[in-house]
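Batch manifest line 417
LIGAND: pyridoxal-5'-phosphate
JOB: complex structure
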Amino acid sequence: MSLVDTSMPTDNEKSTPRKNAAGDFAPQLSTLSVHAGENRQKPGDSITDPIFCASTYTFANTQSVIDYIEQDQAREEYGRYGNPGERVVERKLAALEGGEEAVLFSSGMAAIVGLLMSKLNSGDEVIFFDECYHRSREFCTKHLSRFGVVTRQVPTGDYEAMAAAITPQTKLLVSESPTNPHLSCIDLERFTDLARRNGVETLIDATLATPFNLRPIAAGVDYVLHSATKYLGGHNDLLAGVVVGSTENMESVRNLRGIMGAVNGPQNVYLLSRGLKTFELRMQRHNENGQLVAEFLEEHPRVERVYYPGLSSHPYHEVAKQWMHGYGGLITFLLKDADWRETARVVDSVRIPRIAPSLGGVESLIEQPLVMSYYQCTPEERQQFGIPDNMIRLACGIENADDLIADLAQALDCAND
Ligand SMILES: *Cc1c(COP(=O)(O)O)cnc(C)c1O
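JOB STATUS: finished
ARTIFACT:
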């Protein structure tokens, strides 16, 4: 059906085409991002996939409804259960991730909620590394708790604490890699070993890494999750989320999504599929810009500290080097001897990055976590989350690195006056 067999292995670190076990041509990530999951010949002989603006799908007669049900035919029925464009994007995402099946949701949070709701029962326990996205943890502590699911949180990267928190009721270990905004990276071997020894499953939210920089499925992780709002969509113009795992594991996730109704409209799916075409090119530039800007900031006299996994000063640099192909566009840094107002002056002085939450799009975004995400927290809570007043988070887009560096240099200088 499609040119690219989505079951074939991918390896973005190899520059020469590989053969899979059957001796077939195994395409690289950039080829997959353009072609995987698509039918070679499309409706109307169009080179692009059409947008099917359909809330429902028709049957020729009563017998074809009965055949569809009795023979479990592969066709559409009703928009909440799937759309032809959505299936193409799901196959493409599964191929990029090197997983069997992807289930697309209307946002990253819908994907997290859908996955956890479909996998956890009353009395089950889930363990998080504590730097995970606060809304994910909030869903567990404030909402899953009402249904009798117990959430435990242990310090990020403390595998002994995670091992000690596992009980016979534990079902799932959860982490991000890298985390936001501290960019801590997970040793996937220790993480999956721990899970295997205890007979529990693992989930990695790899939004900040993307399949270009991290391959959690190849490392034995059961579920990989992305906010496709970020690098996968890549243009700051859509919300979407995805979970990738084995076909067997994804069945209950897909069924619950059909009930939740957290699905994408067909135009949104097209935007995501369009964004994915340039996925590898964009990631190469995000990685380059991230590294160059982080190195510039680390040398700057007004900067106290830079969190970027590609810097040898980062506490997780060795882990990152072992597991990651590149380190992405997100950089967190602290200003030297600056209070929150002086920090805000630097944010307000940049001319290229825009002030906004989010990351992973072509436009660079900048924000002060104290103001953008933690304004209503007490100083004690901010200290607990590791969010000092002088922290800035910069999500490098795909602009020219020299331009970004020159802009940051003038912002750091003029806010110094
Ligand atoms: C943005 C983000 C989410 C939530 O995704 P939405 O698409 O905004 O719902 C989850 N995890 C991480 C790491 C994120 O950056």
